[in-house]
Amino acid sequence: MARRTKLEVTEEITAMLKVFDDFPDVEDIQFENKKLTRGKMVQTLRSYLAAVQRTRQASIAHRTRVAEERAALAAAHPIVLRIRLFLRTRVGPKSPLLRSYGVQPLREGKKTVDVKLQAIEKARETRKLRKTMGRKQRRAIKG
Question: Dihedral of CA 21/25/28/29: which sign?
Fold first, then answer.
Protein backbone atom coordinates (compact mmCIF):
# COMPACT_ATOMS: atom_id res chain seq x y z
CA MET A 1 0.00 0.00 0.00
CA ALA A 2 1.39 3.36 -1.02
CA ARG A 3 1.95 6.07 1.53
CA ARG A 4 -0.85 8.61 1.64
CA THR A 5 -0.17 12.19 0.71
CA LYS A 6 -0.70 15.15 3.01
CA LEU A 7 -3.65 16.23 0.87
CA GLU A 8 -5.33 12.85 1.30
CA VAL A 9 -4.79 12.88 5.07
CA THR A 10 -6.04 16.46 5.35
CA GLU A 11 -9.16 15.69 3.33
CA GLU A 12 -9.86 12.62 5.47
CA ILE A 13 -9.49 14.52 8.75
CA THR A 14 -11.67 17.38 7.46
CA ALA A 15 -14.36 14.85 6.53
CA MET A 16 -14.02 13.11 9.91
CA LEU A 17 -14.80 16.33 11.73
CA LYS A 18 -18.33 15.99 10.33
CA VAL A 19 -18.73 12.91 12.53
CA PHE A 20 -19.06 15.13 15.55
CA ASP A 21 -21.79 17.17 13.83
CA ASP A 22 -23.69 14.19 12.48
CA PHE A 23 -23.45 12.12 15.68
CA PRO A 24 -23.99 14.50 18.59
CA ASP A 25 -24.45 11.63 21.04
CA VAL A 26 -20.77 10.62 20.74
CA GLU A 27 -19.18 12.10 23.85
CA ASP A 28 -16.06 10.01 24.17
CA ILE A 29 -14.27 7.11 22.54
CA GLN A 30 -12.21 4.43 24.25
CA PHE A 31 -9.14 2.91 22.59
CA GLU A 32 -5.80 1.56 23.79
CA ASN A 33 -6.98 1.82 27.40
CA LYS A 34 -7.50 5.56 26.97
CA LYS A 35 -10.69 7.52 26.96
CA LEU A 36 -10.75 10.58 24.70
CA THR A 37 -13.47 13.16 25.09
CA ARG A 38 -15.28 14.71 22.19
CA GLY A 39 -13.69 18.10 22.84
CA LYS A 40 -10.16 16.66 22.98
CA MET A 41 -10.63 14.76 19.71
CA VAL A 42 -12.02 17.81 17.90
CA GLN A 43 -9.25 20.00 19.31
CA THR A 44 -6.53 17.55 18.21
CA LEU A 45 -7.91 17.19 14.69
CA ARG A 46 -8.38 20.95 14.28
CA SER A 47 -4.89 21.67 15.60
CA TYR A 48 -3.49 19.33 12.92
CA LEU A 49 -5.46 21.14 10.21
CA ALA A 50 -4.26 24.51 11.58
CA ALA A 51 -0.66 23.25 11.53
CA VAL A 52 -1.07 22.17 7.91
CA GLN A 53 -2.41 25.63 7.06
CA ARG A 54 0.53 27.34 8.81
CA THR A 55 2.96 25.09 6.96
CA ARG A 56 1.31 25.97 3.65
CA GLN A 57 1.54 29.70 4.44
CA ALA A 58 5.19 29.36 5.50
CA SER A 59 5.96 27.48 2.29
CA ILE A 60 4.37 30.22 0.20
CA ALA A 61 6.28 32.86 2.16
CA HIS A 62 9.53 30.92 1.66
CA ARG A 63 9.00 30.67 -2.09
CA THR A 64 8.26 34.40 -2.20
CA ARG A 65 11.48 35.20 -0.31
CA VAL A 66 13.51 32.93 -2.58
CA ALA A 67 12.08 34.72 -5.62
CA GLU A 68 12.98 38.08 -4.04
CA GLU A 69 16.49 36.83 -3.36
CA ARG A 70 16.93 35.68 -6.95
CA ALA A 71 15.67 39.01 -8.28
CA ALA A 72 18.11 40.86 -6.01
CA LEU A 73 20.95 38.64 -7.20
CA ALA A 74 20.02 39.30 -10.82
CA ALA A 75 20.23 43.04 -10.12
CA ALA A 76 23.53 42.72 -8.19
CA HIS A 77 25.32 40.39 -10.61
CA PRO A 78 26.22 43.00 -13.28
CA ILE A 79 27.63 45.25 -10.54
CA VAL A 80 29.75 42.39 -9.20
CA LEU A 81 31.10 41.69 -12.68
CA ARG A 82 32.08 45.34 -13.18
CA ILE A 83 33.74 45.64 -9.77
CA ARG A 84 35.65 42.41 -10.43
CA LEU A 85 36.83 43.80 -13.78
CA PHE A 86 37.78 47.11 -12.13
CA LEU A 87 39.85 45.30 -9.47
CA ARG A 88 41.60 43.09 -12.01
CA THR A 89 42.57 46.09 -14.13
CA ARG A 90 43.61 48.20 -11.14
CA VAL A 91 45.47 45.56 -9.07
CA GLY A 92 46.37 43.06 -11.78
CA PRO A 93 44.55 39.98 -13.03
CA LYS A 94 46.86 37.50 -11.28
CA SER A 95 47.61 39.50 -8.12
CA PRO A 96 47.12 37.69 -4.79
CA LEU A 97 45.80 41.00 -3.40
CA LEU A 98 42.54 40.27 -5.23
CA ARG A 99 41.72 37.61 -2.62
CA SER A 100 41.38 40.29 0.06
CA TYR A 101 38.48 41.69 -1.98
CA GLY A 102 36.87 38.28 -2.48
CA VAL A 103 38.00 37.91 -6.10
CA GLN A 104 39.97 34.90 -7.27
CA PRO A 105 43.09 35.80 -9.26
CA LEU A 106 43.27 34.41 -12.77
CA ARG A 107 45.33 31.24 -13.08
CA GLU A 108 48.50 30.99 -15.05
CA GLY A 109 47.70 29.89 -18.56
CA LYS A 110 49.07 26.75 -20.16
CA LYS A 111 52.56 26.97 -21.59
CA THR A 112 52.75 27.69 -25.28
CA VAL A 113 54.68 25.54 -27.70
CA ASP A 114 57.40 28.20 -28.01
CA VAL A 115 57.95 28.28 -24.24
CA LYS A 116 58.13 24.49 -24.09
CA LEU A 117 60.62 24.42 -26.97
CA GLN A 118 62.85 26.95 -25.24
CA ALA A 119 62.76 24.88 -22.04
CA ILE A 120 63.80 21.71 -23.91
CA GLU A 121 66.69 23.51 -25.64
CA LYS A 122 67.86 24.99 -22.33
CA ALA A 123 67.77 21.55 -20.68
CA ARG A 124 69.86 20.05 -23.51
CA GLU A 125 72.45 22.81 -23.18
CA THR A 126 72.61 22.29 -19.42
CA ARG A 127 73.21 18.54 -19.87
CA LYS A 128 76.05 19.27 -22.34
CA LEU A 129 77.71 21.79 -20.02
CA ARG A 130 77.47 19.48 -16.98
CA LYS A 131 78.27 16.39 -19.05
CA THR A 132 75.35 14.51 -17.53
CA MET A 133 74.25 11.29 -19.18
CA GLY A 134 71.39 8.90 -18.87
CA ARG A 135 71.73 5.19 -18.01
CA LYS A 136 71.92 4.03 -21.65
CA GLN A 137 74.46 6.72 -22.54
CA ARG A 138 76.72 5.63 -19.66
CA ARG A 139 76.53 1.96 -20.73
CA ALA A 140 77.43 2.88 -24.27
CA ILE A 141 80.82 4.17 -23.11
CA LYS A 142 83.42 1.42 -23.40
CA GLY A 143 86.52 1.81 -21.40
Answer: negative
Beta-carbon neighbour count of residue 98 at 10 Å?
19
Q: Say which residues have a Cβ less than 8 Å from residue 14's Cβ, sequence separation at least 6.
A: 49
Question: For the whole model, what pTM was predicted?
Answer: 0.57
pLDDT at 55: 96
Q: How far apart are CA 6 and CA 42, in angstroms?
A: 19
Maximal CA-CA distance, the chain = 119
Q: Residue 100: inside a domain, yes or no?
A: yes
Q: Has residue 38 been placed in a domain?
A: yes
> Could you tell me if residue 64 is inside a domain?
yes
In this predicted structure, the answer to whether residue 98 has a pLDDT above a threshold of 70 is yes
Phi, psi of 37 (to 5 degrees): -80, 160
Residue 53 exposure: Cα atoms within 13 Å on the Cβ side: 8
Cα distance between residue 95 and residue 98, in whole Å? 6
